[in-house]
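re: ur msg from earlier - yeah i can do the zinc ion complex, just paste it... oh wait u already did. ok heres what im feeding in:
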Amino acid sequence: MTGQDDPSITRTPPTRCPACGWPLDATSTSDGSSATPGPGDLTCCLRCAEPLRFTDTMDVRRLTKLELAELPLAQYREILRVRNFARLMSARTN
Ligand SMILES: [Zn+2]
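and the outut:
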């Protein structure tokens, strides 16, 4: 399901960040493009900046250390970029 106002936002089944407990019910692309996430895709909690992976039921789980170590460099850099953004946003709201 795609967000009604912003095509880059996709509603996901309600869940909570396994790292900080923040409620999660939507995701978006990091570059503003339109895309729908699927099982196995990466996302990031915008409260605590934890990198997460969608499960087969579109719940989210933390990445293992091995998964983090095996990420392609470009994807790892993108996670770091999103984490920096999340930390900036968190600092502004706290
Ligand atoms: Zn979190």
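cool cool. DSSP finds two helices and five strands in the chain. ping me if u need the other ligands too
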